[in-house]
Structure formats: C-alpha cells, structure tokens
C-alpha cells in the first residue's frame, strides 16, 4: 500500500481517488472555476467523450468557459440548479449503445430521467448532440430520448438536436452541427462570435529524468501495478489478465484467418452468462509504434507526464501518467483509425509548407471542398496518423502534442462463444482477422484481431495473457427451457450460439425438458469456412440441435444466404413463432444480414399470418419489445 500514499493527492489518477474526496457537485465545481458551460457525455467507445472535449475547448475560443463531464461522476439531480450560474448551458453528447440503450456511464442518468416526473428543470438551458448508427433499429434512441425528456421536464432547448450517423460520416455530421451551434449560442447570450483560431493546449509536458521506475505506468488501465498484483472485482477500470489456453484456426482453407481462442478465468471470481460480451484491451503493433518514433525523430523511452493545465479538472492526464511515449503509443492511444478533423486542425501549425497547412485546415472546415478532401484523402484512403506523416513530409509535430490529441485506444467487445454451465472457468472467443489493402497500397491491420492472432498459448515458455472483463448483455436464452429457440448467425455471428447450444445440451443432460433448438448458419464454402462444423453436426446427432440449416453462399451459381433458407422453411418457422412462443436470435452483420433477415420475417408473417405489410412489421416489433426477437449485431 505504501506507494499509494507517497503520491501527492492531485497526481493520483481520478479513478483511484476515494469517492468521498471527489466533488460530486458539478454546480459547486463550475462556480469555483468560473465555468458557464458543461458538456456531459454518454460514451461507450470514447467518441462522445472526444466530442464533449472538443466542445468544451470551443467554449474557450468564444470567450466562455466550458468543462466536459461524465454523468456517472456527478449528481445529475443538480441540473435544476444550473440557473444559479449566469449564461449557463448544458450540452449533452449522447451515444446509443446496443439495442437503443444508454451507454454504461449514462445508465444512472437515464434511470434518473425516467423516474423523476416531478422534476422542474425550467431554469436549464440545454442542447443535445446524438451519436448513433443508421443501420441499427433504434437509431440515436438515447440522444432523442434525452432531448425530448428534458423538454418534458420544462428545460429550455437552446439549439436543435443534432443527429450523428456513424454509418455515414459522423465527423461531418458533428462539424456541420457545431458550425451552426456556436453562432446561435453566441447570439443567445449576446456574446460576439469571434472564434479564436489558435490552437489551445489542454496539457503541459513534464519530462521525468530521475524517477523510480516503479511509479511508471507500463500499460495498466487503472491502478498502477494492477497487472502485477491482481485484485478482484475485475471490470473496465481493473481488467483481469486471462491466460490463453487455446488459439486455433477455425477455417480449413481460404485466404481469411478465422480463429477460436479460449481464455482461462480460474480464480478470478468472474461470472458470465451465455450471450454476454467479453471486452479485451489490445495493444498496437510495435512496428507501427517504432515507425512513428522514427519519423518524428523521438526517443520513445523517455518517461513523461502530460498534466492538465486546468488544476480543477477531474481528468488529470489524457492517459495514465507517468509513462513512456512507447507505452502511450502502444497501450493507450488509437494510432490506427483515420484521425478526426480536430487533430488535423490542431496539427496544421506544425507543417512547414503553407500549402500543407492550408489543406489541413481546409479538411477541418465545413466547406464542401474541405469535407470532400477529408473524405477522399483521409477516410476513403484509410490514412492513419503515420500514413499522413509519411505523405506530408513537411508535417512534423512535437510528439507530446500528437499524444494529447490522439483518442484513447478502446477495449474491443466479442460475443462469448461458450456457456458458463459447461465452461465455468473458460471464456471462448470466435473472431476473424481484419486486414486489407488501402487505396494508397498500404496494408491496414485490425488492432485487436491481429493482436489476438499472435497470442500463442506458450510464448517462449511464458503464458500469453489478455486483459479482459465481462459486459453483461440482454441477449439471453428464454427463462423457460421448453421455449423453442431460432438462432440465426452466419460467419462469426455463430459465436453466442455455440454458448446457447452448449447450454441447451447441458439442460438436456440435467434431465430438463428442452424445446426445439434450431440453427441457421451461413458461410462462403462448405469445405473452407464452415465454422465449428464438427461441434454443430455432433449437436444435431445428439438431438441437442433439432434442426441445422446451413447456407453456403458461394458453392453454387446463385448466392444462397440464411434468409433464403428461412424463407424455404416458412411454415415450420411460423408455427414455432406464432403458436409455440419461440424466441428468435440474430447475431452478426448489422448492415445487410440483420436487415435482410428482419425483412424475411416480415414476409413470412405476411404470407403465413395473412397480414398486410404494416401489420407484419408491427408483429415483429412486438416480438422485439416482448424480448422474443433479440439482436447482437455490429457494423
């Protein structure tokens, strides 16, 4: 325990501080620091938090003072007191997660909004920017709800709800909204809209020449040394290092690499249910990190801290500090996604060629040609920060400013491919390695899947480990084992169903009466990527699977997908759904597959249930609200 006390209080990571010392009153904090704008974020993967930080930085440009805030850290019941602060405004950057749900950190706020009908927020000025994805059923549900609910509680909407679509161009949606938002705010408060264009640093660099290396972070997420001395409970702030006990290739041929991994959770006290997600914290490719160090001419092993210039901020550092540049670029920063426009804007000043400066600023503007340039040169070309530096030789920013601007590297979620009834001490993952050639001829590799692929069971006699925790989901087998289940999961969408099948098999062994268990799987070629073929055929032979339907899309002239097989079995499916209370589960690609499958169920309801299209869509919608049609999809 000694080391904890030797750190001065203000240097301790916010996550470590005892909740008693933390100020849960954002009103008091705003008064104390002279802030008039607070930007709350509901963020699962860090984007909404990024946007909130950008907006609070903007406030400074317009001569106001803003702070970004995590609703989980504050007493949201204080919103009604915001009128005590002159010219005050609350901005909400709210992402939607899963099936129209709030993000984990906004769950309590969401519950509070739902429960407090008599709350009077008439002194509250607010606006909402929502982050979502159009391929999902409940597009931007959380942002829309907050916007509508605050109005119901008599708060005053100062500017229209912004809708960001990550299936299109989320960055562009945000820029366009923000471009109109600030002038409106300035007008509302009677402030002159003179945006200051200079770059504003949020953190200052401190180099540690003489430091005890035991005080330096080496990749831990929360507590210093938490990877050496592991203490439950394990969660997103304190992941468990699970040894990899199996890592095998699933497909027999073809140029893709599909893999099955097993993580050992013995002794961790971690519990999971079939249908939950496992979150893993990957690290960046060391080759990529070294190239960044080389191109910027930096010794990556210097020990540094980036300290917030605002002493009152809850966020003392952008990532755990003190640490080295190498650790930050390897464990803490996202260096593979194409950078957002604010990064280009802030780095533009470091380009020695005025033309490059102009182009970088143009890409960050909302002018049509600027947007088009960003779309083509950055997004369509999939240029990450290294590619941008390579293709813009006059741009050589200081590495500390680069590290300040890069987003945090996020945990990746995988549907668990096992049942805790059968494997209480093991979590199975099924994933496909992502790699593709970009328009500039570079090879881009998915961070997490390539890192997992290289997690060999024994690495020079050492066990490979994966930092992980469990995220509970709503994707659950029916409470009554006698309910039939219809599982539709092509490709790696099979993952949660391996858990479901194991669990139904276990229930059968316990002598329970188990309803029909029907599987629809799809892949490209029977002799190439038929995942878990042996296990599935075995389950069918044992009667655990009462039906196994597999679509091989490319084994014949015309493509055959899971939805074609569903259509062929419409009589049987309709009987299961309409008269036997079956539960339907869909897992995998959201953009095409999940949509097509849903449309197929609409058609089946029309044809078999004698409904018109609107009745059929309502029928399926009702199944969803009753929890009988569940989706675990991604895009």
Automatic annotation (TrEMBL):
InterPro entries: CysJ-like_FAD-binding, FAD-bd_FR_type, Flavdoxin-like, Flavodoxin/NO_synth, Flavoprot_Pyr_Nucl_cyt_Rdtase, Flavoprotein-like_sf, FNR_nucleotide-bd, NADPH_Cyt_P450_Rdtase_alpha. PROSITE patterns: FAD_FR (PS51384), FLAVODOXIN_LIKE (PS50902). Pfam families: FAD_binding_1, Flavodoxin_1, NAD_binding_1. It catalyses: 2 oxidized [cytochrome P450] + NADPH = 2 reduced [cytochrome P450] + NADP(+) + H(+). It is a single-pass membrane protein. In the N-terminal section; belongs to the flavodoxin family. Belongs to the NADPH--cytochrome P450 reductase family. This is NADPH--cytochrome P450 reductase.
């Amino acid at each position: 325990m000694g080391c904890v006390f030797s750190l001065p209080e203000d240097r301790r990571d916010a996550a470590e501080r005892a909740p008693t010392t933390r100020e849960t009153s954002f009103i008091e904090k705003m008064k104390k620091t002279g802030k008039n704008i607070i930007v709350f974020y509901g963020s699962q993967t860090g984007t909404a938090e990024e946007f909130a930080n950008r907006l609070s930085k903007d406030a400074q440009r317009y001569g106001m003072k803003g702070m970004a805030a995590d609703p989980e850290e504050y007493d949201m019941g204080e919103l009604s007191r915001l009128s005590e602060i002159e010219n005050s405004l609350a901005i909400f950057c709210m992402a939607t997660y899963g099936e129209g749900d709030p993000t984990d950190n906004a769950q309590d706020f969401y519950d509070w909004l739902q429960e407090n009908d008599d709350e009077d927020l008439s002194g509250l000025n607010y606006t909402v920017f929502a982050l979502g994805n159009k391929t999902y059923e409940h597009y931007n549900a959380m942002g829309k709800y907050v916007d509508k609910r605050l109005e119901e509680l008599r708060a005053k909407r100062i500017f229209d709800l912004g809708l960001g679509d990550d299936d299109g161009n989320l960055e562009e949606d945000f820029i366009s909204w923000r471009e109109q938002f600030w002038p409106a705010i300035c007008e509302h408060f009677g402030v002159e809209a003179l945006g200051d264009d200079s770059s504003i640093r949020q953190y200052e660099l401190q180099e540690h020449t003489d430091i005890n290396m035991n005080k330096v972070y080496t990749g831990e997420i929360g507590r210093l040394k938490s990877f050496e001395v592991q203490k439950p409970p394990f969660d997103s702030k304190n992941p468990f290092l699970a040894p990899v006990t199996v890592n095998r290739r699933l497909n027999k041929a073809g140029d893709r690499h599909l893999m099955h991994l097993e993580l050992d959770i013995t002794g961790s006290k971690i519990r999971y249910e079939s249908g939950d997600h496992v979150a893993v914290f990957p690290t960046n490719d060391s080759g990529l990190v070294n190239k960044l160090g080389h191109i910027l001419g930096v010794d990556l092993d210097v020990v540094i801290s980036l300290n917030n210039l605002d002493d009152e901020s809850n966020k003392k550092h952008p990532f755990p500090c003190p640490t080295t540049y190498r650790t930050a670029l390897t464990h803490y920063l996202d260096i593979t996604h194409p950078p957002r426009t604010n990064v280009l804007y802030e780095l533009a000043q470091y380009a020695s060629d005025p033309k490059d400066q102009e182009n970088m600023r143009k890409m960050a503007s909302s002018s049509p040609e600027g947007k088009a340039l960003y779309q083509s040169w950055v997004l369509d070309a999939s240029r990450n920060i290294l590619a941008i530096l390579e293709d813009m030789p006059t741009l050589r920013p200081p590495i500390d400013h680069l590290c300040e601007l890069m987003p945090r590297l996020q945990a990746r979620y995988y549907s668990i491919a096992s049942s805790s009834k059968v494997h209480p001490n093991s979590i199975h993952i099924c994933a496909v390695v992502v790699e593709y050639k970009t328009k500039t001829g570079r090879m881009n590799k998915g961070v997490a899947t390539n890192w997992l692929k290289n997690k060999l069971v024994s690495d020079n006699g050492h066990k490979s480990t994966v930092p992980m925790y469990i995220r509970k989901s709503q994707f659950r087998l029916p409470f009554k084992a006698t309910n039939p289940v219809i599982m539709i999961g092509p490709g790696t969408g099979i993952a949660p169903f391996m858990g479901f099948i194991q669990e139904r098999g276990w229930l059968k062994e316990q002598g329970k009466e188990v309803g029909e268990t029907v599987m629809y799987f799809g892949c490209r070629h029977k002799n190439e990527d038929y995942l878990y073929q042996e296990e599935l055929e075995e389950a069918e032979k044992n009667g655990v699977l009462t039906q196994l339907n597999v679509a091989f899309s490319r084994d014949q002239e015309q493509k055959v997908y899971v939805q074609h097989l569903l259509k062929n079995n419409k009589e049987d499916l309709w009987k299961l759904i309409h008269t036997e209370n079956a539960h339907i589960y869909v897992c995998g690609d959201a953009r095409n597959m999940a949509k097509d499958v849903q449309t197929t169920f609409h058609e089946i309801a029309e044809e078999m249930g004698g409904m018109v299209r609107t009745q059929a869509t309502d029928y399926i919608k009702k199944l969803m609200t009753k929890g009988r049609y569940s989706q675990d999809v991604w895009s």
